[in-house]
Structures are given as C-alpha cells and as structure tokens.
Amino acid sequence: MNERLDRFTKLLKEIFELDKSDLDFGIYRVMNLRKAQIEQFLTERLPKMVQETLAPFAQGSKEEIRAKMKQIEESVAEMGMTVDALPNTAQKKQQYLQLQKQLAEGADLAALETDVYSALYSFFNRYYEDGDFISKRRYKEGVYAIPYEGEEVKLYWANQDQYYIKTSENFKDYTFVFDGINVHFRLVDATTEQNNNKESKDNKRAFMLFREDEEIYPGIKTFEYDPDTAEIVIRFVYDIPEDKKKKYTEENYARITEWLLSQRRAELNPLIAPIPTGKGRETTTLLEKHLKGYVAKNTFDYFIHKDLHGFLTRELDFFIKSEVMHLEDLDTGSEARVETYLAKVKAVKRVGKIIIDFLAQIENFQKKLWLKKKFVVETNWCVTLDKIDESFWPEIIGNKAQIDEWIVMYAIDEAEGWTNPPSGDFLHQNQNLIIDTKHFSNTFKYALLESIPNLDEQTDGLMINGDNYHALNFLQSRYSASIDVAYIDPPYNTDASEILYKNNYKHSSFLTMMDNRLTMAYDLLSDQSMISVAIDDAELDRLIPLMDSIFPKNAGVTVVRSNPQSRKAKGKFSPQHEYCLYYAKRDETTPKSLGFSESKLKRYPLVDEIGHFSWMNFIRAGNNDLRTDRTVLSYCSGRR
Q1: Which pLDDT band holds residue 194 (cuts at 50, 70, 90)?
Q2: Under a CB-based contact definition with an 8 Å cutoff, are residues 488 and 471 in contact?
Q3: Is residue 65 within 8 Å of 98, Cβ to Cβ?
Q4: Within 13 Å of residue 512, how many CA atoms lie on the same side as its CB?
Q5: ω into 218 cis (within 30 of 0)
Q6: Least CB-packed of 319, 335, 528, 535 within 10 Å?
Q7: Tell me: the pLDDT tens digits for 285-337?
Q8: CA nearest neighbour of 533 among 552, 549, 555
Q9: Are 490 and 195 in contact (CB under 8 A)?
Q10: pTM: predicted TM-score of the whole model, two decimal places
Q11: Long-range contacts formed by 387-392: CB under 8 A, 24+ apart
C-alpha cells in the first residue's frame, strides 16, 4: 500500500471512530451499521477512484519508461552504435525520443497518487481535532483567515458555528461487545452541579464503583454476570468522593479485575489480556481502554457542527485554491503537464467531497438528536389553598408529606391554632399555603387540575428543571416574543466555576455556550423587553461584543459589589465585585427608576418640576460654616 494512502486511511478510521466499533449504544450503533460500507470505501473505492481520475493523464511508471529506454540503448549497442549516432528517421531513435519526452512531461501515476493522498491528509488532519472540526482556514504559513464582511469590529471564535453540548446529557449506559459478550457500564446515581456552576477543584466529582446498600437500593449489585445471556453489568456512581486524594480510575480497574478473576471463567479473560495501544510497545487491556473512554465521555463537553457539509466544502475549496493549485504550475507550454496537474486537483476535490458527505451524514444525525424536542418526564403544579375547592381539603390534611413540607418551609407548626394534622379552620386562616401535587396521586392531581377553571390563565409561574438549551427550545412555541424581562446567571468561567472544555478552547467554549442560548432567548423576548446577564471580569470583555452582535441596544453595564471581603484570585487583585449587562431589542426601550423609599425621600424633601432634591448637599455644616468665616471659600451667589 502507498505509504501516504496508509497514513490517510488511518486518519479517516480515527475520524469515523472505527476503532470504537465494539461500542453498542447511541451514535456508535449507527456507525456500526455503516462500518462495512465505510471500510469498503477506504480499502477499495478510495484507491480506485484516485487511480481512475489520474490514469488518463499519467504516462505509466517512470521506472517502466527508463527500462524501455535502456532496452533500446542495449539493442543499439549490440550494433556497435549509440542512440545519438542513429539517424533521426530511424525507428529506434524515434521510439527513444518519444520515451524521453514522456519521461520529461509525463507524470508517474504512483507519484500523482502520493500527492493526492498527501493533500487530503493535510486538509482533514488540520481541521479535525479530538472529535471536533475546528475552523483553521490557513492563508499562508502561520497566518489564518477568518470570515469578514466589512464590520467595524469583528468578534470571532474557534467554535462559532457549532452547538455546545453539555456532558450532563451523556450520563447513559455505556455498552461494548467482545467475543459475543455484552458489557454494560451503568450509572446508578449521579449528583449535579448546584447553581449552574461547575464543580470546584476542591469538590471534584469522580466515577466510583457502586456500593451495595439493600435499604436504599434493594437487589442492586455492583457486579453481575449472566453466562446464559452473555451479559456483564458493572455499576457506578458519580459523586464527590470522601477521600479526595484517592485515584478512583486505578481503584475501579483493580476492583473490576479482581472480580473478573474471581469468576474463574475463561471467556472473560480477553477483558484483561494485554493489547497494543498503537503507541510503540505500550499496551493496555480492553477493560482499561473502555473504562477510560467511559470516564472521558462523561467528563468533557463537546460540540456538534451546525452545517458540517457546508463548512468543510467551503474550506476544501479554499484549501485547494491556496495550497494545491499554484499559478506557476499553469505557466507552462506543455499542455499534457497542465492536464495532469488539473487531474490531481480534480482527484483531491472528488475524493474530499465524498468523505465530507459521509461525515456530514453522521454529524447531521447527531444534530437532529440534539435539536429534537425532549420529552417532559414529569409535570406538577403548585397551587395555593384559596384556589382549591374545600372538597379536596380532607385528602390534603391527611397527606403527611405535604404537611411536613409546610413545617420545613413555612414553620406553620409555630403558627396560632396549629395542630398536626391541621384543622379545616386552620386552613381557612392560612389560604396562602401552597399545595405541591408531587406529594399526591395522579388521580388526585388530575381531579384537582380539572376543578380549576382557566388553568393556563391562572398559572402565573413556570419552573423547568432541565438542560437550559432544551428548556429554551421547549418554550419557543408557547412563549415566543412574549417575555418582558429575563435574567441569567451563567457560569463565570473562573477557576471556581470553570466550564468543562477540551482542545484548550476555554473562552471559545464559553462563547459558543452563551451564543447558542442567548440567540434562543432573543426569540422569546418581546419588543419592549430587557435582558440582564450577570458576569465577572473573566469573560466580561468577550461577553459584551457577543451580546452587541445579538441585541440591538446595549442599555448599560452596572457594577455590583457582591463580595466585600473579596474572593481569592491567584496572581491577581482579589475582586469584590461583579457586573450586570443590560440589553434590549429596541432602541426605544430604556431602564426606568424604581422610585424612592420613604427614608430616601426624607433626604430629598424639596420638589420642583424636575423631581426631588435637597440643598443640604451644597451647604457646609459644622465649624466654619458661615461665609464670613472663610471668605475665599464660598459658593457664588449668582450675581456680579
């Protein structure tokens, strides 16, 4: 096999993730259905396509041409002559001169193929990085081009045309297959970040093997193997560990290996047998490989391209024009050489477009899954007692979970007239108490909701627990252009609340996350609306131009003194403040005053046509408060 073809094929196998063909879930299951088709393309169709495109313009192997020339030279030498001494009309000399011309003008098919594979490798290797395609339109060595349309100021970042996918979407079963045995890594429990912040370094969560507990998880085992169904189940939890110094990846591997050995089953041995990693003499095991893959999949955020086909097609055209086609190669009197050169360009584009089509199909499938509206798995209502018919009160009084919640949230056990359970008279006196339907049966819940007239109109609040992107998507049809005020408090992307990212694209990942969500929030806001975004210094300078590009009006930035004691900042001044950014959809939308409290009005007792004011701020009090005391330091009277 051509060495460059071999290198290019290995890259494509990595891009198509054919090394993960033993995985049996999600997108990998779809990839496995296409695996045979992709491998056939790489091993058969790809080389054949390149050869078919180049063959008409190649003059055969240069070695073959030289061999024929040598045969003529030897034949002429047997006659005691040289080729140069032959008359020009001699057949052998004409054949020899023709071969010389082919050698000078023609192209070696193998050399042309090498050039094509080298160009294709350079293109896909440049744009592909750890599972994502990043824009790297290189203008020349060390200089990259970005799309620019004459704006006064241009904000650009590496993942601008992609969707930011949070890892919380990936807590699913991980399955792989070996020798007909299915191995499942299943997550029993996982904690999530609080207040929309990623975990701190001191409270970093880890994948740990599940601890069996018959009281909380009856019948759930850490390890299970059923030889009849050929299935292994290994269960994990994802939580903040008690021992933060322990290396749980290594401990998990050791404990699973110990359990596998304890089974004394020969069919399980391949899981812990050494296999090459492809990096020199380094080895790993099938179990270790998949444990690392499982952890990595759930601890890195990633991206899905919005239009991978269009993006790669444009970039391939630019790559061909800037790095494959060269004007000096066209500036030749040899028509054959020009045609050969153009054939090479054609082969690069033809093969590149087929690979792009493959990649786009996979990426579009993932995009459809991401954009697909998610199911609502549970819905409950919080209703005040004054809206509930008294016929429902006996069941409410008898619901211990609801009464306990009232005690915890409202301390009603300290109220006058309290008994446990409460009486009907007590409920009459406290009709602002809230009933949460999660504590009741579906029969009670639906009967209660049916009894409330105009339920939608009376529902004046909505709380959604879910991924913020999909929650915004869920709201689009019902609340489009109808929300007047929005406030968001995103992760600040500081050391304490750093979003998970890869490829060193820390700030780019943040901008992509914010752009995806702010764009959807824009569609929900009414024309007279205003949005406020909390942020601190870490991303302030990038967030402002991003919001400028989405919202027509920047209504201002306010400084909020949030932490008078300041917070730690390694190698920097310790900040005591944060910021609020205010934006509107129309220039006419302006922030208004909230008015003055009674205590503040007392400080400004005078009123004129402009508003409240006070002279006291301009009058000196205390010692030396008279003009005669300090004649050279007094306010002008307004007259000459």
Answers
A1: very low
A2: no
A3: no
A4: 25
A5: no
A6: 335
A7: 999 888 887 776 665 567 889 999 999 999 999 999 888 887 665 665 555 56
A8: 555
A9: no
A10: 0.71
A11: 387/452, 387/458, 388/435, 388/448, 388/451, 388/452, 389/451, 390/424, 392/444, 392/447, 392/448, 392/451
